[in-house]
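Q: Hi! First time asking for a complex rather than a single chain. Here are the components, and I think there are four in total. Is that enough to go on?
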Amino acid sequence: MPWNLNSGSPIFVQIIEHLQIDIVSGKYKPGDKLPSVRDLAGEAGVNPNTMQKALSDLESTGLVHSERTSGRFITEDDNMIKNLRKSLVDVQIEKFFKSMEKLGFTGEEILELVKEYSQK
Amino acid sequence: MPWNLNSGSPIFVQIIEHLQIDIVSGKYKPGDKLPSVRDLAGEAGVNPNTMQKALSDLESTGLVHSERTSGRFITEDDNMIKNLRKSLVDVQIEKFFKSMEKLGFTGEEILELVKEYSQK
DNA sequence: ATTACTGTACTAATCGCTTAGTACAATAAT
DNA sequence: ATTATTGTACTAAGCGATTAGTACAGTAAT
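A: Yes, that's all I need. Here is the structure of the assembled complex.
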């Protein structure tokens, strides 16, 4: 299935986020080999150049590294992945609270709304 | 203060969201006159054309309407504003839950994290 | 009447993202 | 040895968003 890439921000950014999620959620484990640039591009339904840009950006954070001709691999640093997961969570929660506060809700009201939502 | 317009999606989309929030949060009340296109553009720090695009898009939803030469006004339909507010809230909550579930959290875990966050 | 302000319309130029296409060197597989 | 696959690099083109600049017609204020 082609990835869901339509939500405003540049596709290569969405690809980065998608891959980060695949890594922190365990789809790719530390040391795993990633599919090739071309395969990932085909899977995502984008141009190989776009996938390459996303991957080389990801690489600059150290989350993945490439062995020149044998492929690209997930970092084996468990801590880096754990920290990324925590950081992604924090970003989501903060973004959510900021948005809701802009809409005029207090912290307590937000908590109440979340309670309601998680009960249905 | 210039608006905070840097988060990936096109500026005119962010302007639309910004204005919607200003309306549902009560900064602009039903029937209020909006500042002129040029003033809003100056306030937001964007080109008047960009602001115009955002406003004419907003207009197509009925939330604002323009009186050809005297200015642009917020709708007087209270219900439309209420519904928009509810819809914006729903979107935020759903987006948040989807993101968190992608990161591997269950509904209960999400609720727990929100509790923690709202307590500090 | 004159002036200032309103929304609106239009062209041209620029910038970033994306795609298309091609190419190369190094490794793996056969 | 030959072939396929790897990451990487590069140019050219197209597209949408944005900016800059200009212009016009209708209304309000003076």
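A: The longest strand of chain A covers residues 64-67. Let me know if you'd like any chain examined more closely.
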